[in-house]
């Protein structure tokens, strides 16, 4: 499981010109699910991303989490994060979780995130999404579980 965290001052997801999820200051999280990923790994990932200290304290040091600042979390499924790019000029997705299984796990992760954090929004699984963001910093981290 891979989560690309981007500290943002705002982010939104549109499908067919309609906004399906948006946040102000917080984290845009692009989520890639691999074949062996499970709910236990998802719980560890959510615990980590909600506590990950990427926001500045009063001294300007990254000592505050999205939970600390009461920021939003916009979670977007992105299977391309599971790509194997080691060989050739075309990515391989053989390690990605099959779509039906990935959709079920993504839905469960969305439920778990709603239970853990008050300000959440989501992309639409499998849709052609247009993601807009203002990356603050820029600050971007790849978490793997």
Provide a descriptive summary of the structure in words.
By secondary structure, the chain is of the alpha/beta class. It has a single domain (2-133), classed as D-tyrosyl-trna(Tyr) Deacylase, Chain: A (3-Layer(bba) Sandwich). It is built from 3 helices and 8 strands, in the order βββαββαβαββ. It has helices at residues 39-51, 66-69, 99-116; strands spanning 2-15, 18-23, 26-32, 55-56, 62-64, 72-77, 120-122, 129-144. Strands 1, 2, 3, 6, 7 and 8 form a 6-stranded mixed sheet that branches. A two-stranded antiparallel sheet has the order 4-5. Helix 1 (39-51) packs across helix 3 (99-116). The termini are close together. 31% of the residues are buried.
Topology at a glance:
Elements: E1 2-15, E2 18-23, E3 26-32, H1 39-51, E4 55-56, E5 62-64, H2 66-69, E6 72-77, H3 99-116, E7 120-122, E8 129-144
Parallel strand pairs: 3-6, 6-7
Antiparallel strand pairs: 1-2, 1-3, 1-8, 4-5
Helix pairs in contact: 1-3
Catalytic activity: glycyl-tRNA(Ala) + H2O = tRNA(Ala) + glycine + H(+); a D-aminoacyl-tRNA + H2O = a tRNA + a D-alpha-amino acid + H(+)
EC number: 3.1.1.96, 3.1.1.-
Family: Belongs to the DTD family.
How helical, in percent, are the residues? 10-25%
Tell me what the CATH architecture is: 3-Layer(bba) Sandwich
SSE topology string? EEEHEEHEHEE
Tell me the number of helical segments per DSSP (H or I, 4 or more residues long): 3
Name of the CATH homologous superfamily: D-tyrosyl-tRNA(Tyr) deacylase
Span of the ends, CA to CA:
5 Å
Largest sheet: 6 strands, mixed
> What's the overall geometry?
globular
Q: Compute the CA-based radius of gyration.
A: 15 Å
Which CATH first-tier class would you pick? Alpha Beta
Tally of strands = 8
Beta-strand content: 35-45%
Average predicted local confidence, pLDDT = 97
| Helix-and-strand structural type | alpha/beta
| CATH T-level fold name | D-tyrosyl-trna(Tyr) Deacylase, Chain: A
Number of domains: 1
Low-pLDDT runs of 5+ residues are: none
